[in-house]
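Appendix B, record 7
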Amino acid sequence: MSRIVSATHGQRQFDPDPDFEIGLSQHLQQAYTREQLLSLYHRFATGEDIFDQLLRRAIWRAVARRFGHGVHIGAGVGVRHLETCEIGDGVFIGTQTYIQGRFDGTCIIGDRTWIGPQSYFDARDLIIEADVGWGPGAKVLGSHHTGHPIDVPIIRPIWRSSPCGSRRGPILAPLRCCCRG
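Structure tokens (predicted):
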């Protein structure tokens, strides 16, 4: 039997993060290099308790280009090139999501976006606007191999990266791939 339930994330109100958490991020940013912070992140990446969640937020805030208030980073979330990310207020990043950035890229995740567990983002040039729901397991592939020259193994030729993203409001179904070619 089916039932109708109210949305929770989109209705959620969040308070600004406490001053001590922002102060901790500032301290970490001054005391550690980016590489050291990312190494430290891995110590707290998989824990489920409040302390692990606090440390994940504090480290992401210290490394990211921008980091909003009321952000939830689930256990097991992985990220490459966090320094290129801008995370909005009230963002939810589900357990075991992976955000694959690039050193010269841009990844923007807008306010109140909900990202389901086990999602994957090719975040070399990604913009997700505010109020987006991203289904569990959904994937963004923003680049592909050109296949040229044809006589060279697939791992060696050039690849093409295309800007991609999601506009305000859509709910994307699981296993959705977009932004190819």
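Remarks on this record: The helical segments are 19-31, 34-44, 50-63. The longest strand covers residues 106-109.
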